[in-house]
Sequence to fold (70 residues):
Amino acid sequence: MGWLFNRNDGELAKTKYSDQESASASAARTRRANHHRHAAAADQEGQAWEEEDRKRDREQLGKDCVTDWD
Fold:
């Protein structure tokens, strides 16, 4: 039971686990990757909606309408 009471977590972290990624760093990396993946999809959906919205506006306003949308 000596290992239970004489723990030195700081020393173990420096030696035994120094080459491993921490659980919190791994979770943060995963969150960033997921956010990036979902943000890109949302950007594409927003762009598609904007293009359709402009197309509807042009159809309603007529072809002679001059805008600065493009």
